[in-house]
Amino acid sequence: MALLTRRRFLQGAGAAAFGAFGLGSYAMAVEPGFMLDVTSYRITPHDWPEGLVLRAVVLADIHACEPWMPAARVRRIAEISNALQPDLVFLLGDFNAGHRAMTQMVAPAHWGAALSVLRAPLGSYAILGNHDWWHGALPGMPSEDAEPVRRALRNAGVRVLENDVVRLDKQGKPFWVAGLADQIAHWKARGAYHGLDDLPGTLAKVGDDAPVLLLAHEPYIYKSIPERVALSFFGHTHGGQVNLPIAGPTFAARRFGADMVYGLCGDARRPAIISAGLGTSILPMRFMRPPEIVHVTIGGPARVA
User: pTM for the complete prediction?
Assistant: First the structure.
């Protein structure tokens, strides 16, 4: 009996080890490197003008690096985005790699060239993320105050908004896109940062009562957003990135709050959408939160509270 018990124990241990290896391989290779979701929302914000319908594609947290997010994959993501026929494209920051676990860096000029194929009649607009400020193309490289990222975006035909706004219109109906500078751009000490964001100053540039769409990298700012903003878009959280069964995105929930990690968040008068993003940070791993393109229709007959 003892021999049988030992055999069963060894068999069970072997199966557990094999299962752990399989799950680890999936989380570090399959889900981050090969999977891609298109997540669609349809929302009519409070006081949204009747007859104004916008289709936007949202790309967040690209974290370009090989083998997980090479320039070829960034281009393919841009091509899929074009196939969704958006009016606008929003890019929510963190273009630089988020960890050192890579086979090769992807320079801003290369991922920028991949994004240059984006096509949207009302334009593409970007903000910067913390990794664009903290370091260069990969951790440890000088950031040059994020200028290589700005240059790559400009060369790709993407307008960068840093505490700035742009007024647009579709079929004669106006609206504003506002973009915040990063909220944790400068690291001061452990857990302490100096942000460059200026929400009041940015919204002061809005010159009329047309609706405002706000782009911000981190969702920390959400509690300060007034009802004047019709809909906000955030990245940074990666939707938890690793979502363990039962426990869920525990680490992300502690950092951002359980209701500000992923998806359609906030209250009915201040809705927000948080993207799971595309790349990885800290570790090249995703589990139960695949990379995603967000496709949102704003306005129209369907209302989501």
Answer: 0.88
